[in-house]
Design a protein that fits this description.
about 250 residues, Creatine Amidinohydrolase, four-stranded antiparallel β-sheet, 4 helices, about 30% helix
Length: about 250
């Protein structure tokens, strides 16, 4: 069941969304060659606490980090550890927080001294695909319109979208109905209504779409070990342009 949020619930989600965005942006500012992903995670934990929120990820199905940090061919759910970020890396920063009983979820991909123009185009295309999906997240459209818009941008640029992992509804729970695929047919799926809240998150690969989960049970990598980028916003469907909460 897709939950349509009341105005007071959206007000609370707006607050959690702003916190998630602030944590995301502060972590991005902290990224530099030589820093470890664990140091970034520890920094994120302090920022989350200072803003009166809690991590949505820590302890979720046993996940051990406050945020997810995925590098290069790691698509999503990278576990913070001793790995040091290097020049030429792309780093996906995925932040989820809970504040006043509601969740906010957001992600961005950061380029660290990247000189490869194809990698730069991959990151730019993924962000563009997110914006294309958000533009279709308005009352009266179908969920498939959102998914199709994301896929079209990625495929037109010569890249592929991950099919094994998708976006999701969000609210009192981190993951609610509906699933939000990054591929699909326009005019298909549930009709969108004002007040629905979605975490739209394209994951776009430079090579093939196939991915695999590593032995740690979390880290997702591309099968061909080519780079992947990830962007995400929590949005509210409106009668008109969607409202971005993160």
């Amino acid at each position: 069941m897709i939950i349509v949020k009341r105005p007071e619930e959206i007000d609370r989600m707006r607050k959690s969304g702003r916190i998630a965005a602030e944590v995301r942006d502060k972590v991005v500012e902290h990224i530099a060659p030589g820093i470890t992903t664990r140091e970034l995670d520890e920094y994120a934990s302090k920022v989350i606490a200072s803003l009166g929120a809690v991590s949505a990820f820590l302890g979720y199905r046993g996940y051990p980090g406050y945020i997810c940090l995925s590098i290069n061919d790691e698509v999503v759910h990278g576990i913070p550890a001793k790995r040091r970020i290097a020049v030429g890396d792309i780093v996906s920063v995925d932040v989820g927080v809970k504040f006043d009983d509601y969740f906010g979820d957001t992600a961005t991909t950061v380029m660290v001294g990247v000189s490869d123009p194809v990698v730069s185009r991959l990151v730019a295309t993924t962000e563009e695909s997110l914006q294309a999906g958000i533009e279709k997240a308005c009352e009266g459209n179908r969920l498939g319109d959102v998914s199709h818009a994301i896929e079209c941008v990625a495929v037109k640029a010569g890249f592929s979208v991950v099919r094994q992992f998708v976006g999701h509804g969000i609210g009192r729970d981190l993951h609610e109905d509906p699933e939000v695929p990054n591929f699909g047919s326009p005019g298909k799926g549930p009709r969108l209504k004002s007040g629905m809240t979605l975490a739209i998150e394209p994951m776009v690969n430079m090579g093939v779409a196939d991915v695999e989960v590593m032995n740690d049970g979390w880290t997702v990598r591309t099968i061909d070990r080519r780079p992947s980028a990830h962007f995400e916003h929590t949005v509210v469907v409106r009668n008109g342009p969607a409202e971005i909460l993160t």
